[in-house]
Amino acid sequence: MFTGIVAAVGRISAITPLGAGSDAGVRLTVHAGGLPLQDVAIGDSIAINGACMTVTQKTEQDFSVDVSRESLNCTVGLDMEGEVNLEKALTLAERLGGHLVSGHVDGLGKVIYFAVVGESWRLDILAPQSLARYLAYKGSVVVNGVSLTVNSVQDQPEGCVISINLIPHTIEVTTLKHLAPGARVNLEVDLIARYVERMLSLSALPG
């Protein structure tokens, strides 16, 4: 589990194919940036741009993860070198500064607006129709591993547009500063919303 509070901005420094076929995954070497790795062991989980990955190798400043082709097909930002948001798995001794995050990307959104508004930034994302029922005013959403609050929801035939306010601190300490209209982003909806939807669907069944 994670909180969606980015601990450091790292960088994917190398991508190594794990096979020759089109179904092969890749091994990522990630420079951890300001993320301390002293307490990270082989087998531990680290969220990379919101996707939970298992550490397979590590040094003092770098770690490696193996990413399956399925994960590559369901996410963005894990198939190219560049900056990524990093967060180590949550421990019971830490404050839950964001919200409960599983690190499982639910779908891809598309940035349709990103600009300065007053002292902050406004980020509008078109979420797919399959996620629309989980997104609500003042609810939580994870964008590229960052826990954010939804300020408004506008339903559309192809999905829904969520509007998010980003404070300067969030811009400064995450990779969201690099977004632009047309960019795709990893989305994870609120964990509790998924369970509520499941319970409601079962309660509607006869008997």
In terms of DSSP E residues, the strand content is: 35-45%
Q: Count the strands?
A: 12
What is the rounded distance between the termini?
A: 35 Å
Order of helices and strands: EEEEEHEEEHEEEHEH
Question: CATH topology of the largest domain, anyone?
Answer: Elongation Factor Tu (Ef-tu), domain 3
Strand order of the largest sheet: 1-2-5-4-3-6
As a percent range, the share of helical residues equals: 10-25%
Q: Look at the structure and give the CATH class of the largest domain.
A: Mainly Beta
Key phrases:
single chain, 207 residues, mainly beta, Elongation Factor Tu (Ef-tu), domain 3, 2 domains, six-stranded antiparallel barrel, six-stranded antiparallel β-barrel, 4 helices, 43% strand
